[in-house]
Amino acid sequence: QVQLVESGGGLVQAGGSLRLSCAASGRTFNNMGWFRQAPGKEREFVAAIGRYGGLKYADSVKGRFTISRDNAKNTAYLQMNSLLPVDTASYYCAADSRNTYWPGQSAQEYGTWGQGTQVTVSS
Fold first, then answer.
1. How many CA atoms lie within 13 A of 75 on its CB side?
2. pLDDT tens across 54-111, in order?
3. Greatest CA separation found in the chain?
4. Above 90 in pLDDT, residue 1?
């Protein structure tokens, strides 16, 4: 069974840090990304990483968030530092098997999704 399982969400004060993990099983994915969705808002791109190191970040998280992956463990990570209340959202891991160096930034480019993990940043 192909699935993505996220973990690491929680409640943190503004300025704090969290690390999200996304463990893939059932197949190996070339591109893995993180998206988020706040109540009443559309799902938005956060960050993505290609199997060979290509990185993409949303402007709103550049310099604060770092995406990485461990190919041996088939797992992607999102290190989130200097968190802000506006970062509060459900965070979703997504994966794609296209053989590209640069990962996509559109939700439509990802065919496999996790169930999401809640991140809440208090002011």
1. 14
2. 999 999 999 999 999 999 999 999 999 999 999 999 999 999 998 888 999 999 999 9
3. 41
4. no
The number of residues in the chain equals 123
Q: Give dist(CA 11, CA 114) in Å, integer.
A: 20
- Looking from the CA of 110 toward its CB, the CA atoms found within 13 Å total 28
Cα 47 to Cα 1, 26, 42, 123, distances in angstroms: 25, 23, 16, 24
The owner of tokens 């993409």 is 56
Residue 108 to residue 49: CA distance in whole angstroms: 16
- How crowded is the C-beta side of 4, counted as CA atoms within 13 Å? 27
Instruction: Tell me which residue has tokens 């809640």.
Output: 118
Taking the CA atoms of 45, 104, 25 and 80 in sequence, report the sign of the dihedral they define: negative
Beta bridge partners of 99: none
Give the dihedral of Cα atoms 60, 63, 64, 69; nearest 10 deg.
100
